[in-house]
Write a structure and sequence with these properties.
The complex is a heterodimer of chains A (107) and B (874). Chain A has 4 helices and 3 strands; from the N terminus they run H-E-H-H-E-E-H. Chain A is mainly α. Classes of the chains: A mainly alpha (107), B alpha+beta (874).
Chain lengths: 107, 874
């Protein structure tokens, strides 16, 4: 799973977001080191939709009307959540190992 | 427009990288995203670059994914195949259009490709020598031939070799037919005699032994020869020990010192046609001092122009020979190409006109068809076919037409090139290698595609876009229809004008050819057969030579049917083979040095060939002995040097000899009428010596009478009876020799005539098509008028008249253009001026008449339609 995909999925853990919201979340969480441009973001979204790891959901009721068509919101599917969990567990094992061998300081 | 709007516009342009379906889905989102980024302060070139890179990468990934979903290449191929099938079906449903379009394309492509291939090979390709563009040919400039590149004398070449002036190096070569023996059957073949440095200049290499060098030029040293590869294979059987073998040239033993590599190309227009190369040893005097037979080639230092050497040789040559105007220096390539280049360029110009006409025709045909398919396209659009789909369909049809036209055209071009190679007149350089190659095919495909797409697709788009909205025939009468009609009229006008230019050009050439063919040659070539013999090496000394010729004439006179026999060193209409510098005596002033053509003849030559003696008499028998001083001159000679009084009795001197001995004076006993040496060119001054006075090795035997078919065999028998080992040269009737001078004009007239004919046909097809369509769309109107009692003939007349008006304007413009364009033909025409009124009028009338007929045919046909039927069709 690429960094990009991981970050996008992570951003959706707390609830559905639209494209720009995902980008903002990722930027905040990673402190600006991962920046998703609109091209790569939507290409990834398209791919994840195809794999059915995420799905489109209607915009929440309190979305400020901007005059244009409602923004598309994306949400994790059950499968997506499962994939994400698997990946995180894998990463956790690696970290445990590293800590066990003094490669990484305690958090 | 705010900055945001402008930025958004640019962004939307960027989004076009994505497939349409993706854009439909995410386009808004991406735009909103982008708008937000801008609002958050993103700006500057760095931002845009990052954006472009980001979207390019993403777009590629998206497209790749889409393809994977749709089965990649095989699916794409399937779609394409389907498009092709549809296109093929559409074309099949319009067979006339397809036939005409393909044929037109093929003709245009074939003509262009053929001429381009010839031009490329003969004129444009570089010669295969190192520094080929620094090579120049240096020639003598004779007064009678200003700007010409004449041969040099030994004095000139030795002077140049010693002191080449601004040139880096100058070499000389002369080619002389000689008898080769010691290798089986003796044969006569031209032997190339070269000076030092010749082989180096042309980058020759030896695959065995060595090339000729300075030691071979040393007087008195052993005679050596270098042979060409093919000669080594044929005559020595590729023997590995060829170096050191000896054979004889003119009974003089020569040692083979080397074999040239197989990729050695004999320098065009400079060396002779023989495979044997020997040292010229100009200093030794093997070449007679008074003759001019040497070709000089020079190597220019980098950056030096030929003009500098030209000035240099102008001075040198005039000093060495006072009767020379100077020298001429030409780049080697120009000398090879000579006037062929100009003619081929002319042919290329003609062919481009032809191509333009073909293009106009294709456009016209497509527009016609476009209008007929208006309904079909309207229905398609109404049913939801996108504009892009229609364009794709039309493009596929155009490409299919281009493919067919191109294939047919390439085939025709191939045939044409082969035909050209077989039929081309002598003297076109590098023609043996001429064939349609990869470049030619590429040109064919390129021309075909370009024509089809530019003149087929664009007009089709033009017409369909005008008929998208609305069905029914009504829109043909709308302004769109009228504008299209104007375009078509414009095309007909253009085609007519261009066709007129070509027909005028070919008409001028044809008229000139007729004049050339009917010009008065100055003699009567009928019933005369000639045989060329060269006895050098077979007889020794003047007396034996004279005896041989006398016996030959006696034996030839005995052939049944032969009434008279004569000898001459030169035949009429056969060029000039020998010239001499003499000084005619004058009554007052200084004697001029004259450079005249000299011919050696038997006294009865003039009566045999039927050249009138206009003053004095021919030579007597007694005046044919060695040492005789009787001569005849022709009228051109007297016009040039002796305008005052009768030339009979005047004397011509050989010029004061340098060694102080007495000058020899020849006495003119008669004047003969002019006889041409070349078609279309006035006879040069000529002087006739009795052949016995200076027995020659080479001469033409002329027999009058007998049957030309049996004469050849009989003559050969006579020769073998006298000397079985003597090779017989050219045996040909004088008529045939004379007609050969017309070969070139005949060829080019035929070529141009061919172009003109095709151009005219294409233009007429265009006129026919236009009128046919115009009347077809007016069928209803015609039907009504006929039903109401209109006179058929008058109706047809009105239709034809409107086309005729366009034709008349086209013809007028065409004639005007011709008047300007044909000025370039001035030096190709001998008798006809480029503004020959009769030709112009004739062509104008021809094109108008044929055009009117081409318009009348469809108009008449549609007027014979039953009015009741047409009205019912509504």
């Amino acid at each position: 799973m690429t960094t990009r995909t991981l970050q996008i999925l992570l951003s959706l853990i707390e609830g559905p977001r639209h494209g720009y919201g995902v980008r903002q979340a990722v930027m905040e969480r990673t402190g600006g080191s991962v920046v998703l441009g609109s091209g790569t973001l939507y290409e990834a979204v398209d791919r994840l939709l195809g794999k059915e790891w995420i799905t489109e959901v209607p915009a929440p009721a309190d979305e400020p009307g901007s005059g244009g068509p409602p923004r598309r919101y994306y949400s994790l599917t059950t499968e997506g959540r499962a994939e994400l969990t698997t990946e995180l567990r894998r990463m956790d094992e690696v970290v445990r190992f590293a800590r066990g061998h003094d490669l990484l300081e305690e958090a | 427009m705010t900055d945001t709007d402008r930025a958004l516009r640019r962004f939307r342009f960027l989004l076009r990288l994505y497939p349409a379906s993706y854009r439909d889905r995410y386009g808004h989102e991406m735009e909103a995203f982008f708008a937000q980024e801008i609002q958050d302060g993103a700006a500057g070139p760095a931002f845009w670059v990052r954006l472009a890179v980001d979207h390019t990468r993403a777009a590629l990934a998206v497209r790749r994914r889409r393809d994977n979903n749709h089965g990649t290449l095989s699916d794409r191929a399937m779609n394409l195949l389907q498009e092709l099938r549809f296109a093929a079906r559409a074309l099949r449903r319009a067979p006339t259009f397809t036939l005409f379009a393909v044929c037109t394309l093929a003709l245009g492509v074939a003509a262009t490709t053929t001429v381009f291939t010839i031009l490329d090979r003969v004129v444009l390709r570089a010669l295969p020598y190192p520094d080929a563009d620094r090579l120049v040919v240096i020639g003598s400039e004779f007064q009678q031939d200003p700007g010409g590149v004449g041969p040099l004398s030994v004095a000139q070449i030795t002077d140049l070799m010693e002191n080449p002036g601004p040139a880096e190096r100058i070499v000389g070569v002369t080619s002389i037919p000689m008898t080769i023996s010691g290798l089986g059957e003796p044969e006569r073949t031209p032997v190339n005699q070269i000076s030092e440095g010749f082989f180096e200049l042309f980058g020759a290499t030896a695959i065995a032994g060595r090339l000729l060098d300075d030691r071979d030029q040393v007087a008195g040293s052993e005679h050596t020869a270098v042979i060409e590869h093919a000669f080594w294979v044929a005559r020595f059987g590729s023997a590995p020990d060829v170096v050191g073998r000896v054979f004889s040239i003119e009974d003089e033993p020569h040692v083979v010192v080397g074999v040239l590599s197989p990729d050695f190309v004999r320098p065009e227009s400079v060396a002779g046609d023989g495979p044997i190369w020997v040292a010229a040893r100009f200093a030794e005097g093997r070449t007679s001092a008074g003759s001019f037979s040497i070709t000089a080639v020079g190597l220019l230092p980098p950056g030096v122009s030929p003009g500098v050497v030209d000035d240099f040789v102008d001075d040198r040559f005039a000093e060495i020979h006072s009767f020379l105007s100077g020298g001429t220096v030409l780049p080697h390539r120009d000398h090879v190409v000579d006037d062929i280049g100009d003619r081929l360029m002319g042919a290329f110009g003609g062919v481009l006109l032809l191509l333009l006409i073909a293009c106009a025709n294709v456009a016209s045909l497509t527009i016609t068809r476009g209008q007929e398919r208006a309904r079909e396209f309207s229905v398609r659009t109404a049913l939801g076919a996108g504009r892009r789909r229609l364009i794709l369909q039309l493009a596929t049809e155009s490409v299919l037409l281009a493919a067919m036209g191109g294939a047919l055209g390439a085939g025709l071009a191939f045939g044409a090139v082969e035909l050209f190679r077989a039929q081309a007149p002598a003297g076109i350089p590098r023609i043996e290698e001429l064939s349609l190659d990869g470049w030619g095919l590429a040109a064919a495909i390129g021309v075909s595609l370009a024509t089809s797409l530019l003149f087929g697709l664009l007009p089709a788009l033009f017409t369909t876009s005008r008929t998208e909205a609305g069905l029914g025939r009504a829109n043909l009468r709308s302004t769109g229809g009228r504008r299209v009609a104007r375009v078509r009229a414009g095309l007909v006008l253009a085609e007519t004008a261009l066709a007129v230019v070509l027909v005028v050009g070919s008409g001028l050439l044809a008229k000139d050819l007729i004049r050339l063919s009917t010009e008065d040659p100055g003699f009567d070539p009928n019933g005369l057969t000639s045989m060329h013999l060269n006895v050098s090496g077979r007889v020794a000394g003047d007396e034996e030579t004279s005896t041989f010729w006398t016996r030959l004439m006696e034996e030839a006179a005995a052939i049944p049917g032969v009434s008279e026999v004569a000898l001459a060193s030169q035949l009429p209409y056969d060029g000039v083979s020998s010239m001499r510098s003499l000084a005619p005596e004058v009554t007052s002033g200084d004697r001029e040095e004259a450079f005249v053509a000299q011919v050696f003849v038997t006294p009865n030559y003039f009566s045999v060939v039927d050249i009138p003696v206009v003053d004095g008499r021919t030579m007597t028998r007694g005046e044919t002995q060695p040492g005789s001083l009787a001569v005849l001159v022709n009228e051109a000679f007297t016009r040039r040097y002796w305008q005052d009084g009768s030339p009979v009795g005047r004397r011509v001197g050989t010029g004061e000899p340098m060694d102080g001995s007495e000058e020899t004076f020849y006495s003119v006993v008669g004047v003969v009428a002019d006889v041409r040496t070349r078609a279309g060119v006035d006879a040069p001054p000529q002087i006739f010596f009795p052949i016995g006075s200076d027995p020659h090795d080479r001469a033409d035997l002329i027999v009058k009478g007998g049957a030309s078919a049996t004469n050849a065999t009989a003559l050969r028998e006579v020769v073998s009876g006298l000397d079985p080992g003597l090779p017989v040269g050219r045996i040909e009737t004088l008529e045939s020799i004379a007609s050969q001078t017309l070969d070139r004009p005949r060829f080019y007239t035929g070529l141009f005539g061919g172009f003109a004919l095709v151009a005219l046909l294409l233009a007429l097809v265009g006129v026919y098509g236009t009128t046919a369509y115009a009347t077809r769309s007016r069928t209803r109107e015609i039907g009504i008028r006929l039903a109401l009692g209109a006179v058929r003939a008058r109706l047809v007349g009105t239709i034809v008249r409107s086309t005729a008006n366009v034709l008349a304007v086209g013809v007028g413009i065409g004639l005007a253009i011709s008047a300007l364009a044909t000025r370039a033909m001035a030096d190709v025409l001998f008798y006809v001026t480029p503004l020959d009124a009769l030709t112009y009028l004739g062509v104008g009338a021809l094109v108008l008449t044929t055009g009117a007929v081409a318009a009348w045919l469809p108009a008449s046909r549609s007027s014979h339609v039953d009015p009741a039927t047409t009205l019912r069709e509504e």
